[in-house]
Amino acid sequence: MIKFTGLLLAAFASMQASVATAQDMAAPQLDRTTIYIGGGNARSDGDYESDKTPLSFGIMHQLSGRNLILGADLGREGTLLDSTWGQDEAVEPATSFNLLIGANLAQTDRVRTDAALLIGFREDTKDCADSYIGYRCYANTAPETSFEGNIGFVANASFRKMSLGIRATGESTQLLTGFRF
Questions:
Q1: 155 beta partners
Q2: CB neighbours (10 Å) of residue 153?
Q3: What is the pTM of this model?
Q4: Phi-psi region for residue 140, left (φ > 0), alpha (ψ -120 to 50) or beta?
Q5: Please, which residues bridge with residue 58 across strands?
Q6: Phi and psi for 65 in degrees, rounded to 5?
Q7: CA-to-CA distance for 143 and 129, rounded, in angstroms?
Q8: Which CATH code, of 3.40.50.300, 3.10.450.540, 2.115.10.20, 2.40.160.20, is assigned to 29-180?
Q9: Any idea where the domains of the chain sit in the sequence?
Q10: Tell me, what's the pLDDT at 55?
Q11: Lowest mean pLDDT among 13-17, 61-65, 108-112, 149-153
């Protein structure tokens, strides 16, 4: 019994030593997540297009042990024609909901460069029957909202914890700033 317990303790100590050695030999854990905000110029050239400053907020994360980057992006860009609250195709900024898929292009101890394809959808129109007693829509029903596709790219370069980049879609071009952790 004593030999068996001693053998178990020796095996456990050996495993702990090999794990500690493997951790010491492994490269230091690098920051793999980037959070950003952006603002820029709208692509508007008509009477029925919003010219308000586009904004965005997003997050990108590199999967452990891989170059693959996944993320999400929420933007205020493009044009929403709003026919609620008694309006008739009022021009408002649209909201876009996007996913990011990309890759880490280059990485050192201090510098990192990432690029991702942006794919999602954006509001196009909101419409409903007019309310006669002050609601947004007749009988306080929800408006019908139609959506359009949204495609673009996001690229950023990070130095230590700070990140600068660009986000471009068919509706806007934005300068990004953020941090990684």
A1: 115, 166
A2: 15
A3: 0.76
A4: left
A5: 36, 73
A6: 75, 5
A7: 8
A8: 2.40.160.20
A9: 29-180
A10: 97
A11: 13-17
